Here is the input.
Amino acid sequence: MIAFILNQKKVITDTKSGENLLQFIRAQAHLKGTKVGCREGDCGACTVLVGSLQANGSVAYQSVTSCLASLASVAGKHVVTIEGLNLDKQLNKAQQSLHDHFATQCGFCTPGFVVSLTGFTLQHKPQHHALDAISGNICRCTGYKSIERAAQQLEAEMGADTHDLAWLVTQGYIPEYFQSIPERLHALPPSLTTPESKLVSGGTDLYVREADALADLDITYFEGNKEMLFQKHQVVLGGGVTVSQLWNSAEMNALFPNLKQYLKWVSSLPIRNRATLAGNLVNASPIGDMSVFLLALDAQLTIKSVETTRIVALKDFFLDYKKMDLLADETIDRISFEVPEPAFSFNFEKVSKRTHLDIASVNSAASIVVKDDLIHQMHLAIGGVAAIPKYLHATIAFLQNKPLQADVLKEAETILQSEIAPIDDIRGSASYKRLLAKQLFWAHFINLFPDRFSMADLMH
Ligand SMILES: Cc1cc2nc3c(=O)[nH]c(=O)nc-3n(C[C@H](O)[C@H](O)[C@H](O)COP(=O)(O)OP(=O)(O)OC[C@H]3O[C@@H](n4cnc5c(N)ncnc54)[C@H](O)[C@@H]3O)c2cc1C
Ligand code: FES
Ligand code: FES
Here is the structure.
């Protein structure tokens, strides 16, 4: 039995907890405003808001692609579809801004845009941008400019302040009933399920591949460890930490000043809201962005079962294509990495067919500590050029204690090429990926040490 609130209505259902939320919304709740597009998290037509009770009693809302969300993941939460955003007698502010800018044609994508933009207003902070909020919404008709103008209007109206729920209601951003939701969520009965199958976290990998099979099962929904601990020389991230948690973390942004730029290349906001670090590692895609990112930090995994706890270096975790050092009853509890002194310089690069909302042809990350003009410590990882996300052991060993010079890097790049084995596939030919591997290797040094290296070094 799963209990949640759908718009204004309490739902208590015996539907299998693996059923996807989109199917439930349309087929069982008969709310047809949430559209079925790609069913792969790509188009945003199915976007809903999911509100979770916070420790301070408030409800925090996130945009989620309902085609990839399990029913189990909304137990005890507030699910808001486009129908739940309508005001009585007027358009809400997100609807009004799209109307003002003629930002809809066939209208198929419009509910998703309204939901995402309302999500932006609900979690508005001065450094948030409305365009980021619609990074997961695709429109085939308008050409986007009118939608962008509508989003910018909404952002301007929100101003630089943060706003509480009461203000959002009185200003016409959301309906009044939102104010009763925290109390109503508290009063929900606990959801009871008997998990019988797969462990699902964010579901953004599993539901793309197995949504139909999961729909017939009670899944093990695993929120995982969401803690983030920042010590002087070590960072510990729970396996259930999402990419959005990293994005919003002041400590992570201080440690990685270009973090938001890197994470913008990782899927879209609704996917980042759900995608966990452990899910990215266990998905074991050779081009997993967070896998490559964490390999370049020489991360360690704390792997747990009911009876055991063991530590595995991430560079030893990936064994072969989609094979890992992880037993069926084990989960990744924590991911930790050292923060050396003096601090490392870090860079992440990704080349994909589309700049946004696309997986990489080749991606790479590097962390480097230079002392007395020598490469004191370096970790380098690359994705898309081997069966696993690749930690470049031989290249790193060669660079250790070498001077930071172009001729050294040229030799290192030859070693890098001997360590990789790209194949031809839809993301590019093997020779193209070798070229990208070379360019991304140099891009790390050109970006991190612009006074020493330039494109000219790469060309020769
Ligand atoms: C539209 C779209 C765009 C995407 N773009 C990108 C992208 O740009 N870059 C990228 O790298 N990925 C991308 N992905 C892939 C996906 O979002 C990530 O791999 C994500 O991190 C998976 O995490 P999850 O929590 O959703 O995993 P889930 O789907 O819940 O699980 C994935 C696997 O991990 C296992 N698992 C989950 N948590 C644990 C745990 N704690 N311990 C042990 N096993 C666990 C599950 O059993 C399952 O086998 C995209 C996906 C979609 C749908
Ligand atoms: S239907 Fe396309 S993102 Fe869900
Ligand atoms: S208005 Fe037709 S898909 Fe956006």
The mean pLDDT is 95. The domain at 2-85+177-220 is CATH 3.10.20.30 (Ubiquitin-like (UB roll)).
